[in-house]
Write a structure and sequence with these properties.
single chain, 4 strands, mainly alpha, two-stranded antiparallel sheet, globular
Length: about 525
Amino acid sequence: MEKKITLPYLTKGDLDGFFGLLVDNLMQLMVIAVLCPQLCGIPLSVVTGTILPAAAISILLGNLYYTHQARKLAFRTGNPKVTALPYGINTVSLFAFVFFIMGPVYRATGDWQQAYALGLAACFFSGAMETAGAFVAERIRKWTPRAALLSTLSAIAIGFISMDFILRIYHRPGMAILPLGIILVQYFGRVSLPFRIPAGFLAIVVGTSLAWLPVEGIGFMDWDTTEEIETEGIFALPILLNTLGSVEIWDYLSIIVPMALFNIIGSLQNIESASAGGDEFDTKPSMLVNGIGSLAASVCGSCFPTTIYIGHPGWKALGARQGYSSLNGIVITLLCAFGVMGYVIRIIPIEAGAPIVFWIAIVITAQAFQATDRAHAPAVAMGLIPGIVAWGVFLVEQTLIATGVFNFQNLGLEKFTGTGLAAIDGLIKLERGFMFTCTIWAAISVYIIDRNFQKAGTWALIATLLSTFGFIHAYQLTSVGTAYHFGFLVSPAMTFGYFLLTAYLFFIGYAKEKGWVEEGEDI
């Protein structure tokens, strides 16, 4: 039964949340606009005329639904402070599809249309898997400890979000440090700015203004970057259907499948993050719309899946409620549909919005410790390690690519023997399937802390099975970086190690039941 409350469509906090989510989505679109022409050969006119508008449609569909979902929950519970789930393009899948599917196809064939077609198919398969995953995700969520879910989110926040954006801030300190201070004063210090100006809006205005100052070392934007951009529309559906029936797409399932699985788990973790913040959304419809958004993206012409975003606690702390989500979708759609996106990218630098996203990452990390049992804090810390390692491996790969060392197969890991990087093989193994590994080790740690060794052993058994078939830790070096290596016992040492751990945990559980081991005091 719904409770009678007054629920405005927009609040002041929604404006702050809107600017934060808008910057987040804009940055994904900016990455697409840069990488697709550079690495995949796709003309910028096709990017701005087809891919970005299609991505905007998928973003709009999800944003409208999650606004509706949040308002429905607010009326049902009588709580006007319900915050809608944030939603947008999946960053991890974006990079994976560009670097490991579309880019390699273009380099091998010189045909950007084939690279684009396979990107569409990859997005479609990912959306189909996410849609199917909606029917089993709730069971996974209930069976997985909260510390395991939140620690994985924190690992991504620390590595792939906070690190990237703090480096952007220090790359342009003259224009980015003040916007960071504006964000921290209002949201860490809980201080309202004069005239109740939203800190997110002010940070973008100040950062953009400083970036355009004609002062050496501070301003770096130039009016020459605002030249006219042409757009070209492509009817993507026939291209998608033809590609789905081709054999080439099967060669890339080793990339598509883990990315879809990671997306399912990541969305599940974000729903758990919202629950920890007090907003209890139904898992199945949330996941279902997430998958449908990716399907819509591929049908309309985008190669990039959508996802429920990391960051709900951050937007909630900003004061965002329901309207920020739909407002973001509408503005993104208008910017892309009318060809304005290219100019926006050239006027507003990424660094101007970097402090907002950096702050969100800090809040996410803090929540992982604050919203879990105090005794489980070591488990959260344990789950951070694979994600931080994954960011390090990503940074090394991108550095090697930027310096022209494309043929990773010729590097030879033996070159690192006797150096400080002698364990680089371990780094790469820990990076492969890191989202699974973060969750697994945090869950094992939770149940060990709780002295529930049978459940800990069950999670170790899951790691054994995943490593047996190469979903975690197995890799191969390719000409463009590291890639998954699927198969049976492709990393036998990893499988054997996890098998021994599984046996030990089950033995300790049995010994505990028999009274063979003594329990010490809690630390």
